[in-house]
Amino acid sequence: MTSEDIKRRKWIKSEREAVRRAAESQAAGDDSLINFADIPRLTKARLASMVRLGDLAQPIGSRTEDGATVTAKHFPIAYYR
To answer: Is the pTM of this model over 0.85?
Structure first.
């Protein structure tokens, strides 16, 4: 199955209604249906190893056609040290 297959798939009425309800709930900021009980708490060690994502960003540069250097930031996937 490809992404094109997924895009072309016809949704049944109940699927469209479920997505619509989820979108409305999300837009309203309602997270009352989320069960946070099954999410493990962060340990002290894990909290201590966290870093701000901006601190991990590495500058990368590239040249444009007119020779100017453009600097952007590359953000690594990892959030923990």
So the answer is: no
Nearest Cα to 49, choosing from 9, 13, 75, 80?
80
pLDDT category of residue 46 using cuts at 50, 70 and 90:
confident
Q: Give the start-to-end residue ranges of the domains of the chain.
A: 3-74
Q: What's the token pair of residue 45?
A: 């060690």
Q: Quick check: 26 and 46 in contact, CB under 8 A?
A: no
SS3 72: strand
78's tokens? 């990892």
List the beta strands (DSSP E) in the chain: 58-63, 69-74
